[in-house]
Design brief:
The protein has 230 residues and is of the alpha/beta class. It has one domain: Spore Coat Polysaccharide Biosynthesis Protein SpsA, Chain A (Alpha-Beta Complex), CATH 3.90.550. Helices cover 36% and strands 16% of the residues. Strands 3-2-1-4-7 form a 5-stranded mixed beta sheet. Strand 1, helix 1 and strand 2 form a beta-alpha-beta unit. Helix 2 crosses helix 6, helix 3 packs antiparallel against helix 5 and helix 6 packs across helix 7. The two termini are 25 Å apart.
Length: 230
């Protein structure tokens, strides 16, 4: 079994993380649960590494943390990278990596919204696609809100080779040709949209879970505290 690593902001709150971990404990087997970065009160993982993320932009902070994780030999060679808004809704035995489409198709979908076409996120998608194409790599979009299996040695080598990258997941997935399973992104940003009972993964937008239909759905699915709550 592999470890799970949550990379968290310093000011992270407990609510989303609590239900994410409950979903993991109920539906997925792992060795240890690690938290890097911030840790809210009421959550005690197997291992916690307090780390002040480096850089000014969100992607710089994430990549600086992944680099620290990649150097920790106490973490399993392959580990599952999690965010606090990832939820595993059904029992999972063998979890693949996921992508939803090509980066080009993702950009096209965003560009239907004129404001979205000028966003910093869209710019990152374009730059990542162009960088990958320039070196002959595939250009699948791994920026989906589901766990990703990362190899520590490969992550370290990638960050050292491409220190200016902005999208770690898509760079990692395409440079190392990890393949995976095509899956529609599971993030639900609308507060009124209810998920299907049969959904396998979910991700929520920022905000109080109780104020959205998907948040209430998750809270009702995982009412019982897990062993990491104190």
């Amino acid at each position: 079994m592999n470890d799970i690593v949550y990379i968290l902001k310093e000011d992270v709150t407990a609510e989303e993380l609590k239900y994410s971990i409950r979903s993991v404990c109920k539906n997925f087997k792992f060795r240890k649960l690690w938290i890097y970065g911030g840790k809210p009160e009421g959550i005690e993982p197997d291992e916690y590494v307090k780390f002040r993320q480096k850089g000014n932009m969100p992607w710089e902070k994430v990549i600086s943390t992944i680099y620290e994780v990649s150097k920790n030999k106490d973490i399993t060679e392959d580990f599952w990278l999690f965010n606090d808004d990832f939820y595993i809704m059904q029992p999972v035995e063998d979890m693949p990596n996921f992508y939803d489409r090509t980066l080009h198709r993702r950009i096209q979908a965003i560009e239907k919204n004129r404001m979205g076409s000028r966003s910093l996120y869209t710019l990152q998608l374009r730059r990542t696609r162009e960088a990958l194409q320039s070196e002959g790599y595939k250009t699948f979009n791994y920026e989906v809100h589901m766990p990703m299996l990362i190899n520590r040695r490969k992550a370290k080598a990638l960050i050292e080779k491409y220190p200016k990258m902005t999208m770690f997941r898509s760079t990692y997935g395409n440079v190392y040709n990890i393949g995976g399973e095509q899956h529609k992104d599971v993030k639900i940003a609308r507060t009124d949209l209810e998920p299907s009972e049969a959904c396998d993964f979910l991700s929520t937008a920022d905000g109080d879970l109780s104020e959205s239909a998907v948040g209430r759905f998750i809270m009702e699915r995982f009412p019982e505290p897990c062993r990491y709550e104190v």
